[in-house]
Task: inverse folding
């Protein structure tokens, strides 16, 4: 069913239910013409938004189909592969609809006429938070293997469980979003979980998920990004003493495991951020990743068409509407290089998947050298 909240806002603002009735109450021609001129732009907005929602509903169906196509790393037939190039467009317009609605609420409902200009960051964060809650609701997992209501993950989501289930010790979960991956983090081997999530509109969903999975006592929400100058003070503020050893000797690190699931695409200054995460890993600590990356078009399994399409989406607003997400980051090169200060990682187990697509994935484990 289409979401008509924005439609309701615009119709309430117009307050028109019948043109004949309006003419009767407003016999003066000039008054009617003035009202008509005012109403027409809003009806145009309403029409365009309705068309956008219809496109998104069709896109959701196609998106579920694309997940089935991407359930294997084997390239699909040529036609399916080409159609798959357009799947991110459905995701982008889905996110765009939330941004339009949030802006409309600010202007028409709250009377903040210039909010889309003066409060851009706030509106973008709110819109992305709403989109992400809706987007991930169809990808919920369960820690109960007998739960038949939740389907098995497919596509890139199928890469995540085998990796995250190996997490242990003190764990940093970067950008947990709505807690979609939390059912994979219920192992007794995990002694403490810290979820660094700067989007505060998602915090209530995280708390609810932690309660549902019975890990609330050891799950701590950290309301910041992962930059060390923000994260370390926020960790101190938790009062758990998790950074005491780090404060004494930074080489001691903080975390036994750091989780990066679809987050490195959107962190600012990725090279610096990854370097700081590496510094917060304890000796022998592990970095577990599942990230979409730039299409490796120079490789045999890569696609030059996929790489070009990535650039097109970037130009047409993917990053703006999708929470600063970038489709064209060479995440693997950054991850491998960050350990050069210590002579490299002790062990690197990475593999690429879906290299033929617009959203290839890199997944695996990197282990920091011990003392």
Result:
């Amino acid at each position: 069913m289409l979401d008509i909240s924005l439609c309701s806002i615009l119709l309430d603002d117009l307050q028109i239910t019948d043109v004949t009735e309006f003419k009767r109450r407003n016999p003066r021609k000039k008054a009617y013409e003035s009202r008509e001129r005012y109403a027409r732009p809003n009806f145009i907005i309403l029409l365009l938004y309705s068309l956008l929602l219809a496109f998104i509903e069709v896109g959701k169906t196609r998106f579920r189909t694309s997940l089935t196509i991407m359930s294997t790393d084997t390239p699909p037939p040529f036609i399916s592969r080409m159609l798959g190039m357009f799947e991110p467009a459905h995701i982008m317009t889905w996110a765009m609809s939330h941004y339009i609605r949030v802006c409309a609420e600010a202007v028409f409902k709250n009377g903040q006429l210039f909010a889309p200009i003066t409060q851009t960051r706030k509106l973008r964060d709110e819109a992305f938070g709403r989109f992400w809650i809706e987007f991930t609701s169809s990808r919920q997992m369960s820690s109960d293997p007998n739960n038949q209501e939740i389907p098995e993950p497919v596509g890139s989501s199928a890469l995540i469980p085998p990796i995250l289930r190996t997490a242990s010790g003190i764990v940093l979960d970067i950008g947990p979003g709505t807690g979609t991956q939390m059912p994979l983090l219920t192992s007794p081997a995990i002694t403490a979980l810290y979820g660094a999530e700067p989007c505060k509109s998602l915090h209530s969903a995280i708390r609810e998920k932690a309660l549902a999975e019975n890990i609330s006592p050891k799950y701590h929400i950290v309301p910041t990004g992962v930059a060390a100058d923000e994260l370390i003070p926020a960790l101190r503020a938790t009062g758990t003493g998790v950074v005491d050893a780090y404060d004494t000797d930074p080489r001691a690190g903080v975390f036994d495991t750091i989780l990066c699931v679809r987050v490195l695409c959107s962190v600012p200054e990725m090279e610096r951020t990854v370097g700081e995460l590496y510094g917060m890993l304890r000796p022998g600590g592990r970095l577990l990743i599942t990230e979409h990356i730039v299409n490796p078009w120079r490789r045999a399994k890569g696609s030059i068409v996929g790489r070009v399409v990535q650039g097109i989406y970037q130009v047409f607003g993917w990053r703006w509407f999708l929470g600063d997400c970038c489709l064209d980051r060479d995440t693997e090169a950054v991850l491998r290089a960050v350990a050069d200060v210590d002579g490299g990682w002790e062990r690197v187990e990475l593999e690429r998947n879906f290299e033929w697509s617009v959203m290839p994935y890199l997944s695996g484990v990197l282990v920091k050298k011990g003392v």
Residues 86 and 244 are 49 Å apart (CA to CA). The radius of gyration is 24 Å.
